[in-house]
Design goal:
The protein contains seven helices and two strands, in the order βαααααααβ. With 159 residues, the chain is mainly α. It has one domain: Four Helix Bundle (Hemerythrin (Met), subunit A), CATH 1.20.120.330. It has a two-stranded antiparallel sheet. The protein starts with 6 loop residues before the first strand and ends with a strand.
Length: 159
């Protein structure tokens, strides 16, 4: 495409926050444990959380100087939130957001279904997904924890 886009870590972070807010609007956290139990899973809401997590991790890596073409490359990262998480952790994500082993495991579990686009296109069968409201809390933790990092990033990347 002939359009020269300016890509920033903060722009990715803003989109991550927007996808999280959309997931919250679609599936608000119930007021009780019974409400959580009765809550019906929504693959669309899982997709919104997955995309928020993907964009949060890419915002962090952009802030660390990664080029967008590298982050978009399906052989390196693409939509694999597991690969993005592993690289972000190597680049000291923990200085901005401390994720527990369980929180990291939830992202890794989501990754196979998310990167395969099974949340975007109807596919019947069994889905292995983390508990929705736990994943929602993980996505929120990333968005809140990476705000400052993304705002302070000075590098602007080209596609």
């Amino acid at each position: 495409m002939g359009v020269n886009l300016r890509i920033t870590a903060h722009g990715f972070w803003r989109h991550a926050a927007d996808f999280l807010h959309a997931a919250d609007a679609l599936r608000p956290v119930p007021n009780s444990a019974v409400g959580k139990f009765r809550s019906r899973p929504s693959l669309v809401a899982y997709y919104l959380l997955g995309h928020s997590i993907e964009l949060s991790l890419k915002a962090f890596l952009l802030a660390k100087g990664y080029e967008i073409r590298v982050l978009r490359d399906p052989k390196q990262f693409g939509h694999s939130v597991a690969n993005l998480l592993a690289e972000a952790r190597r680049r000291k994500l923990g200085k901005e957001v401390k994720l527990s082993k369980r929180e990291c495991a939830a992202i890794v579990l989501l990754s196979e279904t998310y990167k395969g686009k099974r949340l975007e296109y109807v596919e019947y069968g069994v889905y292995r997904l983390p508990e929705y409201f736990f994943l929602q809390a993980v996505a929120e933790k990333l968005v809140l924890g990476l705000r400052k990092c993304s705002m302070n990033a000075t590098g602007r990347q080209k596609p």
